[in-house]
Amino acid sequence: MKRALGTCYYPEQWPRELWEADARRMVEAGLTWVRIGEFGWSRLEPRPGEFAFEWLDQAINVLGSAGLKVKLGTPTVAPPRWLVNKHPDMIALDRDGRPRKFGSRRHYCFSHEGYAEECARIVEILARRYGGHPLIAAWQTDNEYGCHDTILSYSDAARHAFQDWLNARYSTVEALNQAWGNVFWSMDYRAFDEIDLPNLTVTEPNPAHELAFRRFSSDQVVRFNRRQVEIIRRHSSAPISHNYMGRVTDFDHFKVGNDLDIATWDSYPLGFLEDRVGAPPDRQRHFARQGDPDFQAFHHDLYRAVGNGRWWVMEQQPGPVNWAPANPAPLPGMVRLWTWEAFAHGAEAVCYFRWRQAPFGQEQLHAGLLRPDNADAPALAEARQVADELKSAPDVPVGLAPVALVFDYDAGFAWAAQPHGQGLSYFQLVFDTYRALRRLGLSIDILPPTTEDFGAYKLVVAPGLMHVPEALKRRLSEASGTVVLGPRTGARGVDFDIPVPLPPDWPDLDVTVNRVESLRGDMPVALEGGGAVTLYREELEGSADVVLRLEEGGAPVAMRSSNMIYLGAWLDAPGFERLFTPLAAAAGLEVHRLPDGVRVRDAGGQRFWLNYGAEPVGTPAGWLDVAGVLQETL
Ligand code: GAL
Q: Is residue 266 lining ligand 1, measured as CB closer than 6 Å?
């Protein structure tokens, strides 16, 4: 597989005279892909039913004839003003019931049938016109579902659709009352149309209600996306993708991904650092111009799974962005490092956002490959360098990693429905676990909960699976490698009830969680031998062997029976290291004690060393400069 580079381009934002030169310069820089169209609705259909396709026809021809492959986006992320005037109730409402008004983007509710029909209409028109076009090589649906917190909508349209969804799921309202435990606080309903959305309640809503609403909202995204995919497929055989975001867990990406050919995601390493990574301030400062050393890799591995092996970086940060709390410039070389890191994790393509910095609109302060005056911005030379390097670099086979980490969006919904303490987020737990494994130099495959067979993995780690369907329980129990479960494995039934027998209720593992507590962030509880429990702890009892225990009192923290380990706590970094180091060694895995900021990724017979640190550093493969990348053939 030849790895490729590309960019995101908005012909409608630039004078026609620039297009030829832009296309030529893209090709000269070694780019092969260009994505267009996803924000073009107001210029494609300036008034209801009145179309203007000439500019898009021309843009596709100019770009395609220059030798670029064109990915065409459907424009449904940004419905024009006239459309909102026509359907004023298509606007999503936030949790406080406030409208998310026109004037930026993503101002729609996934449940509004009128808007869904408008989307189907514009997608049908585009797919008919361009579906057979020889220069259209791929499609993108919409843009970043869930960005700007846009999955959960508390509109009337959502309420009606939720009631229908509940009716289909529970059949009778009595069954729903029973499943949710609505006898508690006299919350029984007599009919589905009495059930409101779980916002604006006096105190927290029933977590079963909240969980159902999150599952429903996720299904609405799957439906919305599927509708576009079915239309495009009727007219085109080109692959269809969607560009996901970093740390968006409000919908099940695996389910959306099953309808698509390729998963892509938008990687903004410096933009994400402050409010998505969850690292302490001193680490953020240390990595301010490089990005977190694990955050990009985590999403590369996640979206490789979401795309069933096929994935891209659709938008790669090329310089300072405009939207984070602080927006520094990357260290020289980081754009190249980020690009190579994506290839090391199996990306088919990396595209830079955006071609030229726009001197107008919300993103004026967002760098591109070109400056607003058309001169080269610093990232262009780094992109060109990667394009040159790709010509002679050995190809990167993806291969199988030795470690599997299970990621389950439904568990994320359950953690969000009732976290039981500040900072208790499923994403953060899985990400902390991932980081701990990577600090030991391990390469990881992230897997969906529907994985049929874990047999290929020496170590399978499945933290936080709040509800474990029987099939998943069986498949994890059958794994031949070492399996690490918990905390919160099987802590709730499908409708958020505490199950009896008490969790984890796992075959051949005599461990019972008899009580749980959440901890303040500033009250770590020390482990015997080093490391600590943070944020959350379970009291464990049973006859399984103790693997980790508390320093004071000696209570068990992790217990083991043959290849199954139950971890009853959220550990800090040294705690995770104490748990994983002997397990990895016993599983025959090569463990590296990596310097801070250095990461390793094995892909087939290739090993990549990457330096996110602010200092050059020696590695077994040689000297790694700041922003350095080394590729070894094993
Ligand atoms: C992404 C989005 C792009 C652009 C970019 C700026 O989230 O898909 O359209 O807004 O961020 O960094």
A: yes
Residue 358 in tokens: 């726009």
Minimum CA distance residue for ligand 1 atom 4: 353
Among residues 575, 583, 488, the alpha carbon closest in space to that of 533 is found at: 575
Structurally, at CATH architecture level, domain 403-586 sits in 3-Layer(aba) Sandwich (3.40)
Which atom of ligand 1 lies nearest, measured to the CA of 321?
Answer: 12
Catalytic residues: 144, 315
Against a cut of 0.70, is the pTM above it? Answer: yes
143 lines ligand 1 (CB under 6 A): yes
321 lines ligand 1 (CB under 6 A): yes
**Taking CA 415 as the corner, what is the angle to CA 412 and CA 419, rounded to the nearest 5 degrees?**
150
Torsion-angle region of 600 (φ positive above 0: left; ψ -120 to 50: alpha; else: beta): beta
Here the tokens at position 473 are 């329980």
Q: How far apart are the first and last CA of the chain?
A: 19
Q: Which helix (H) or strand (E) holds 409?
A: helix 409-417
Per residue in 150-195, pLDDT (tens digit) is 999 999 999 999 999 999 999 999 999 999 999 999 999 999 999 9
Query: If you take atom 10 of ligand 1, which residue's CA is the nearest one?
Result: 363
Per DSSP, 329 falls in state P
- The CATH code belonging to domain 4-151+221-392 is 3.20.20.80
Domain segments of the chain as ranges: 4-151+221-392, 158-209, 403-586, 598-633
Give the position, in ligand 1's atom list, of the atom nearest the Cα of 317. 12
Distance 545 CA to ligand 1 centre (A): 50
The answer, yes or no, to whether residue 1 has pLDDT greater than 70, is: no
Give yes or no for residue 85 having a pLDDT over 80: yes
Distance CA 415, CA 474 (A): 23
Average pLDDT, the chain: 97
